[in-house]
Specification:
Length: 270
């Protein structure tokens, strides 16, 4: 590995920030660089998941009690503890994917670039758009096939779909997957690195934002911000299993005929 590479310098910097702040130096500095990266991703990923989930639950279930979620729809502590247990059991495996992707970037096997100035702002924004479109397309079809291919659903995705009512869904359900399921749904982020020139720091940020985004879409609060595939859409997915497979936006579901609008459901019910 070329330790003069800007990618290696960047990941080393991240390792020093997270591990150097939270662990005694003698516990992590002897580890190989790849293992340091995995440990950093594991600690940072766990903190992002737990802190964002706790703060969001505290806000919507306690500070805004009965404002966003009716009392009878608030999940029990037991349900949330189970979701945390499932997510934390899978977290070591989840963190293998970004660690391997960083290793591939560091070795020059992808189309990543280190600085926005390497391509200019116009190209950066264009590439980011292509990256997000590819990820949206990839996650939509990966998610849909996890439903349509029965063995995949039975052995992998069903773990997540035990949370199928409003009073069982919470922000902590966002990462409560079978580890292979969670990895498969994140794989489009990595495949994109081989196809689209991608700013490395932006890629890392988007991966970690997944933990916050998935918490958001499992809180059952419909934000009504078109074309965002928010919690209103995703709650329908958890109750019908056949709609709203998309990730960030409604466009893939609209294109492929699986979109179901929560506002239309509300109109029908009234």
């Amino acid at each position: 590995m070329d330790y003069s590479s800007p990618f290696v310098k960047e990941t080393t910097f991240y390792n020093q920030i997270v591990l150097g702040t939270l662990l005694p130096e003698n516990l992590w500095t002897p580890l190989p660089h790849l293992l340091q990266t995995w440990l950093r991703n594991y600690i940072a990923g766990s903190l992002v998941y737990l802190i964002s989930g706790f703060l969001w639950c505290f806000y919507i279930y306690h500070l805004k009690h009965n404002v966003y979620v009716p009392k009878d729809a608030i999940p029990t502590r037991k349900a949330m503890y189970l979701q945390i247990y499932v997510a934390m059991k899978a977290m070591p495996w989840y963190c293998a994917l970004p660690s391997i992707s960083e290793y591939m970037v560091e070795n020059g096997w992808t189309r990543c670039f280190a600085r926005i100035s390497d391509v200019g702002w116009a190209s950066y924004i264009s590439y980011l758009g292509l990256y997000l479109i590819f990820v949206e397309f990839g996650i939509y079809w990966m998610h849909r096939e996890l439903h349509d291919i029965k063995p995949l659903y039975k052995w992998l995705h069903a773990t997540h779909h035990i949370y199928n009512k409003q009073n069982t869904l919470s922000p902590f359900a966002g990462l409560a997957f079978h580890p292979i399921d969670g990895i498969l749904q994140a794989v489009p982020h990595v495949i994109a690195l081989f196809l689209v020139p991608t700013h490395f720091t932006t890629h890392i940020a988007l991966l970690f934002m997944e933990a916050i985004w998935t918490a958001n879409i499992h809180d059952c609060i419909h934000g009504k911000l078109w074309p965002v595939m928010g919690a209103g859409y995703h709650t329908i997915h958890h109750t019908t299993y056949r709609h709203n497979y998309g990730h960030y936006t409604v466009w893939m579901d609209w294109m492929f005929g699986t979109l179901r609008d929560p506002l239309e459901d509300e109109t029908k019910n009234t």
